[in-house]
Design a protein that fits this description.
InterPro entries: DIOX_N (IPR026992), IPNS-like_FE2OG_OXY (IPR044861), IPNS-like_sf (IPR027443), Iron_ascorbate_oxido_reductase (IPR050231), Oxoglu/Fe-dep_dioxygenase_dom (IPR005123). The protein is of the alpha+beta class. The protein has seven helices and 14 strands. The strands form three sheets. It has an eight-stranded mixed β-sheet. It has a four-stranded antiparallel β-sheet with strand order 6-11-8-9, with no helix packed on it. A two-stranded antiparallel ribbon has the order 13-14. It is globular and about 55 Å long.
């Protein structure tokens, strides 16, 4: 029997019997591509030239010697798997509100069922984890998440301070354009998909962050777009993947690249990853010679409006300045 069809923890839409998904292959099929060589950086001995080149070209690099204890990551992965392995109805009922919220699929799934993201996960409010209610409800998972996010905030600040020098940011910009207290943590599980050539684990997109730090298992499936080709990013145990988001592309006046990426679905095994996203201060106005000024709140509102209208994010094009016609 199909493993996906008998798993009660999966969203009903992902179960083959009685599924409302169209099994007809899509005009574009999703297949593994060539493997890309990802720049490797040592956080304790940062090569500033390589860091700058990685941000300008690929917009993604691998981080080693980052100081996150392997045991911490392993325990967090284990707890995340346990929570997401609970029956679907229980997750929906118990994780609707609070510091840890359950989500699945595509934000605007009702617009186009053929383009549903084959994933589910946990949205963790870093600030909400400090409340007494979260301590009693989530116990050790809460404590592990807090410790893990402290490491992520440290890594984000270390990287951004170095990039700020490369971008000639002043002290005020260095402080407000990245806020360690404004981080977001998510756990992603990519369920087994019966037709992985027709659906994606996560659709092609750029992140709405300054920086994103990814901690993934050994399964793989992440792809990045470079020179009009989708490349596989092969997992390397003990390392973290850092990718640049839209907001640092704005801060850099398009010198840095917010990399487009996606995740392939698998018919063989599930995939788990931990994603940490860091943003500017909410009221900080991002200024650029290429984009109109905006705040994080305004950017998020535009993204949500675009998703509701079109089913996907439009992104920075909505804020780009009109270039004068010189003809």
């Amino acid at each position: 029997m199909d493993q996906a069809a008998e798993n009660p923890s999966y969203p009903p839409l992902f179960l083959t019997p009685g599924s409302h998904l169209d099994p007809t292959p899509q005009p574009t099929t999703f297949q593994p591509g060539p493997t890309i060589r990802v720049p490797l950086l040592d956080l304790q001995r940062l090569d500033t030239d390589l860091l700058s080149q990685s941000c300008q070209k690929l917009g993604l690099f691998r981080l080693t010697n980052h100081g996150v204890p392997p045991g911490l990551s392993n325990r967090l992965f284990a707890f995340a798997r346990e929570i997401l392995s609970r029956p679907f109805e229980r997750k929906v009922a118990e994780l609707a509100d609070g510091a840890v919220k359950y989500f699945w699929g595509t934000p605007a799934v009702s617009l186009n069922l053929k383009e549903v993201n084959w994933l589910e996960g946990l949205h963790v409010s870093v600030a909400g984890l400090s409340s007494p209610a979260s301590e009693s409800e989530f116990g050790e998972f809460r404590n592990l998440a807090i410790e893990y996010c402290e490491h992520m905030a440290r890594i984000s600040r270390t990287l951004f301070n170095t990039l700020a020098i490369d971008l000639n940011l002043d002290e005020g910009q260095t402080t407000t354009y990245l806020s360690e207290s404004n981080g977001m943590f998510r756990v992603y599980r990519y369920p087994i998909c019966p037709n992985p050539s027709s659906y994606l684990g996560m659709e092609a997109h750029t992140d709405s962050s300054v920086l994103t730090i990814l901690n993934e298992d050994e399964v793989g499936g992440l792809q990045v777009l470079s020179e009009h080709t989708w490349f596989n990013v092969v997992p390397v145990p003990g390392t973290l993947i850092v990718n640049l988001g839209d907001l640092i592309q704005v801060i850099s006046d398009d010198r840095y690249n917010s990399v487009k990426h996606r995740v392939l679905a698998s018919s063989v095994t599930e995939r788990i990853s931990l994603g940490y996203f860091v943003f500017p201060q909410e009221d900080s106005v991002l200024r650029s010679t290429v984009y109109n000024p905006f705040t994080l709140k305004e950017f998020r509102a535009q993204v949500q409006e675009d998703i509701m209208k079109t089913g996907s994010k439009v992104g920075l094009k909505q804020f780009r300045k009109e270039m004068p016609n010189l003809s």
